[in-house]
Amino acid sequence: MQKENDYTAASLSEDLVNEVKSFEDKLGKQVNKDVIVIAYEKERNETN
């Protein structure tokens, strides 16, 4: 049986969203590109 990975958008506090945006900015400057970081949370399965 194939294992499925179910992900949903992570619910983040305003402070964490600001940290992610800061990380995007720093990473983008390092690679000289526009970068978007997406936060997902994995659904927990009882069998894992």
Overview of the molecule:
The protein is α+β, with helices and mostly antiparallel strands. Helices cover 38% and strands 12% of the residues. A two-stranded antiparallel ribbon has the order 1-2. It is flat.
Characteristic key phrases:
48 residues; alpha+beta; 38% helix
List the helices and strands and how they pair.
Blueprint: E1 7-9, H1 14-31, E2 40-42
Antiparallel strand pairs: 1-2
In short:
With 48 residues, this protein is α+β, with helices and mostly antiparallel strands. It contains one helix and two strands; from the N terminus they run βαβ. 0% of the residues are buried.
Number of helices: 1
What Rg is obtained from the alpha carbons, in whole angstroms?
A: 15 Å
Span between N and C termini?
14 Å
Q: Strand arrangement, largest sheet?
A: 1-2
Structural class: alpha+beta
